[in-house]
Amino acid sequence: MRGRSKVIGQRSKQADGGPEANGQRRERAKGRPAAGGRRAQQVRVRLGSPRATEAGALDGRGALDYRAIARAVETWFRANARELPWRDAYTPWHVWIAEVMAQQTRMEVVVGRFPEFVARFPTIESMARAAESDVVAAWSGLGYYRRARLLYRGAREVIDRFDGELPADADALRSISGIGRYSAGSIASVAFNLRAAIVDGNVARVVARLDAIEAPWKSGALERRAWELAEALVREAKSPRHFNQGLMELGASVCTPRNPACGDCPLAVYCRAKQADRAGDYPRRAAKVEVTEMTIPLFVIADEQGRILFRRGEGSLMNGMLHLPHGSAAIYADPLRIAEPGPVVGTVKHSITNRRITFEIHTPVASSMGRLADAPGEWHWLAPRELASHAHPSYVRKALELLFGKV
Ligand code: SF4
């Protein structure tokens, strides 16, 4: 990152009025005060008066008091914010990395891996100049390597199109590879304190309960309403940076999927689900996704030096990662000939989307390994300890650790 980040636009699209703003205008046309309007605030919310706040939590027709809710979240966040490494300075590049990592894995894992990753790629430029394979290798263990590739591509675009500095503008951020609506809102608000909304799973759950949204979880209708609410709320925030992080953190630590701690929640007096004593009923359940169970043979083939045979995978999900040969032994007949897979020596479980896979591990001897030299980019012999420096899916590590101990 060279110098300070460039400011392309000071106001986000949302700050200029989205669907919710239009909705407020419609309500005024009907002669009713808009929720969160200045006059409504003067009447309903007096700081330091719990009764006034409680009475103003839901107005007569059930509209949420956006301003009071935003203030409650910000105040709660300032008192309860976790110490996270990128919160010291909110450096945009660090916020971006943390954002991508957090989409993929638990926060404890992100906190553990973040310092090492940032030390390896301290600036956008350092990543843009690295080889993609170095970025993917550094991502190892964080899963879903496509995100690492998109981060790399995005870093190169920032060098080419934005002179090496992340733009302080949600729309411009969305034009960068790997940055969608949510990430753009998150980076714009957290790194640049702009009024950009975010909706992730935690936010969707909180607002689904806050407004008792009847649309099922993960439905388009819920998503639309969640974005409307998030936009309306961030418009009223004093600090979009604190508000958005507070809403996410509230969802992660208080308004949890099971047993939300409504007694500790700063939104309890505003929350429709809590007021109806039905917090557990929201978000409404989505239709069940059918899970497919699969059993697949997995081959751990060693040579006389103890090296293991890997195959570089292809396809959009696993592209470029090292796999252990798996599937029917017959499909490896050429160039790898497995005459007899041998007995199952162990099993590992692995899940991808709605597939639950049981890999049955075999340790066969391949009879025509010499022919693997025909495809040197595809087949690789590596000692188990070398695995860490190559991108690989988690089942590979699980299988090798089952046979050889920690690799
Ligand atoms: S009151 Fe309960 S259900 Fe409502 S937002 Fe807070 S924790 Fe979630």
Explain what this protein looks like in three dimensions.
The chain has 407 residues and is mainly alpha-helical. The protein has two domains: 1-288, Endonuclease III, domain 1 (Orthogonal Bundle); 292-404, Nucleoside Triphosphate Pyrophosphohydrolase (Alpha-Beta Complex). The protein contains 16 helices and six strands. The protein has helices spanning 19-29, 38-44, 50-55, 66-80, 92-104, 107-120, 124-129, 132-138, 146-161, 170-174, 181-192, 201-210, 220-236, 240-253, 272-275, 394-404, and strands at 292-299, 308-312, 322-323, 346-352, 355-362, 379-382. The strands form two sheets. The protein has a three-stranded mixed beta sheet, with helices on one face. The protein has a three-stranded antiparallel beta sheet with strand order 3-2-6, with no helix packed on it. A hairpin with a 2-residue loop joins strand 4 and strand 5. Helix 5 (92-104) packs across helix 6 (107-120), helix 5 (92-104) packs across helix 11 and helix 11 crosses helix 14 (240-253). The radius of gyration is 26 Å and the shape is globular. The model is unreliable at 1-61 (pLDDT under 50). Residues 206, 209-210, 254-255, 260-262, 265, 267-268, 271, 273-274, 279 line the site of iron/sulfur cluster.
